[in-house]
Amino acid sequence: MAQPNGAPAASGGLALKPGTAWSDAWRRCLARAPEAFAEDRVLNLWNGTWHRDGAPSPAVSPVDGGPVAGPPRLDADAARHAVRAALDQHRGWRHVPLEERRARVAAALDALAEHRQLLALLLVWEIGKPWKLAQADVDRAIDGVRWYADHAERMTEGRAPLDGPVSNIASWNYPMSVLVHAMLVQALAGNAVIAKAPTEGGVSCLTLASALCVREGLPLTLVSGSGAELSGVLVRSAEVGCVSFVGGRDTGARVATAVADVGKRHILEQEGLNCWGVWEYTDWPTLTPLIRRTFDYAKQRCTAYPRFVVQRTAFAEFLAAYLPAVRSLRYGHPLAVAAPEDPLPELDFGPLIHAAKARELAGLAAEAVDRGAVPLHRGSLADGHFLPGQDTSAYLPPVTLLGPPASSPLHHAEPFGPVDTLVLVDTEAELLAAMNASNGALVATLSTDDRATFDRLAPQIRAFKTGHGTPRSRGDRDELFGGYGHSWRGAFVGGDLLVHAVTQGPPGERLPGNFPDYQLHPAAA
User: Fold this and answer.
1) Cβ neighbours of 413 (radius 10 Å)
2) Which of 116, 179, 375, 458 is most deeply buried (CB count within 10 A of its CB)?
C-alpha cells in the first residue's frame, strides 16, 4: 500500500512514479533555494530578504491527504512592516530605467524556465493539477511575461509607475499563470509588488518562484496569513498604490467596499456563472470534444462552464453528444503510473482543492436531487486512476444534473468543481434569462448554426467574452479580459490594459473597467 507522499505500492496496480514524491520535491526546493526554504517550513519574503517569522499552518495535499508545507502566517503588525518596506523598495524601483527592469525580468524568466519541472511538480502536490496542466500553468506565466517585455516600450510610453506598490490577493488555482504573471508585469511597469500566498495551496510553488525572481533584483514581497488578519493591511494601507484581487464574490465585495472607501486603484476579478447556450444547433459531432475540454482541472477555474442552457426540442441530440464526453473523462492521482518508466498520466482532472470542497459539492448535488433535479450522470471513484489504498477524500467524480431547483445554490452560483447543471428553455427570452442568471459573467458561449442569430443574441448575454460555438478563456498577451455585472470591479486587464491598470497616464484618464462612478467597456478581443 502506498504511503502518503512517499514510496510506491509494494506490488500490483499503480504506483507513484519514482522521483515525484513530495519528499523529492521538497529536497529539491531546499537545494535550489536554501534562502527561502528551511527543513521544516517555508519563509516569508519582505524587505528583500527571507524571514523565519509567522506561524506555519498544517497543510495536506489534496492528491493523497499527506502532509505538505503550510503557509507561515503573519499577523497584521508584521504585515504592516512588510508593506512599509515594500513602499521603500517601490520608491527606488520606480526610477530604475525600463531597459534595466526588462533585463532583470528576462533573467528571472530564464530562471523560472530552468526550474519549470520542479515548479510544476509543486503545483501537482499543492493544488492537485494534472502534470500536463501544471506545466502549462508555468509555461503560460513565462511566455506571457516575455510578450510583455517585448512590447514594454509601447505600453509604458507616456506613463509612470504608481505612487505605491501593487498588492495582490489571488485564489489558489493559478499561482503561476495568473499571480506570478501579474507580479512580473507589475514589476516590469515600474512597481514594487506585494503578494499574499493563498491559504488553500500553492505557497511552496510561489516561494520558489519568488526566490528565483528576487535573486535577479526584482522588488517582490511574499507573505502568508489569513484574509481576516491581513486583508485590511494589504487593501487599506496608505502605502499601497493598487489592489489586485482574484477570487469569489463574497470576499471580492468586501475588498471592493474597502477600496471604494479610500478611493484606491483596483482590479477585482470575481466569479460568475459562465453559461453555454445551445439554440438552433445541429453540429453535434463538434460539440462532444469541446464539452470534454470544459472539465479541465475539474472546472476549478474562473472561466469554467458549469451550466448548459439547451433548447428543449434539441435536448435528445444534445444529450447524445454530451454523455459520451462526460463518460470518457479521466480523473485520479496525477503521478500514478503502471510502470516506473511510464510517462505521467494525461488526466482531465485530479482532486478538488481539499476534501471539504468535495464533500460540500457532493452534498449540494444530493440536496438538489432531493429537491427535484434529475441526475443524468454520476461518475464513480471506482473508475478513477488511483494508487492502491490511497486517500481519495478530495476527489469528486463528475456529476450532471438536469433542472436544478431555484432553491439550490447550484441554480445560480458557480460550483467550482466537476458538477454540471442543464437547464431547458423554449424561447430566446428564456435562453437569455437563464444565461444571465448570475448577473454578470466572465465568459459565455452560444452554439447556434446561424451567424445572424449569434450576432443578435450575443450582445444580450452579460459576459465579457462570448464565443460562437467555442469556449472562451481568460486569454493571453494582447487579449483583453474583464467581466460584466458583479463578476468584475475596477480596471480591466489584458494587453495594454494590464500595464495601464498599474501605471499612471495623463491627467483625467478613465481606465476601461467597472468603477463605482462609471463603467467603460471596450470591445472584447
Assistant:
1) 17
2) 179
C-alpha 96/C-alpha 81 separation (Å) is 24
CA 14 to the chain's CA centroid:
30
SS3 label, residue 291: helix
Q: How many CA atoms lie within 13 A of 354 on its CB side?
A: 10
Amino acid at 201: G
Q: What is the pLDDT of residue 73?
A: 95
Cα distance between residue 367 and residue 377, in whole Å: 15
Phi (first) and psi of residue 56, to 5 degrees = -65, 135
Domains in the chain (CATH in brackets) are 24-270 (3.40.605.10), 275-468 (3.40.309.10)
Instruction: Give yes or no for a contact between 413 and 248, defined as CB atoms under 8 angstroms apart.
Output: no
Return d(Cα 424, Cα 430) in angstroms, integer. Answer: 9
Which amino acid is residue 169, in one-letter code?
Answer: I
Helix orientation angle between 22-32 and 116-127, rounded to the nearest 10 degrees: 130
Is the pLDDT confidence value at 368 over 50?
yes
Indicate the length of the chain as a whole number. 525
Cα dist from 125 to 221, 350, 352, whole Å: 24, 10, 12
Task: Find out whether 304 and 417 touch, Cβ atoms under 8 Å.
Answer: no
Mind listing the pLDDT tens digit for each residue in 241-263?
999 999 887 777 788 778 877 78
Q: Structure pTM?
A: 0.94
Average pLDDT, the chain: 94
Q: 448-504, pLDDT tens digit by residue? A: 999 999 999 999 999 999 999 999 998 878 899 999 888 899 999 999 999 999 999
What's the chain's Rg over C-alpha atoms?
23
Selected residue with higher pLDDT from 120 and 437: 120
Long-range contacts of 232-238 (CB under 8 A, 24+ apart): 232/76, 232/258, 233/76, 233/79, 233/80, 233/83, 234/79, 234/83, 234/167, 234/169, 234/194, 234/196, 235/167, 235/169, 235/259, 235/264, 236/261, 236/262, 237/80, 237/83, 237/167, 238/164, 238/262
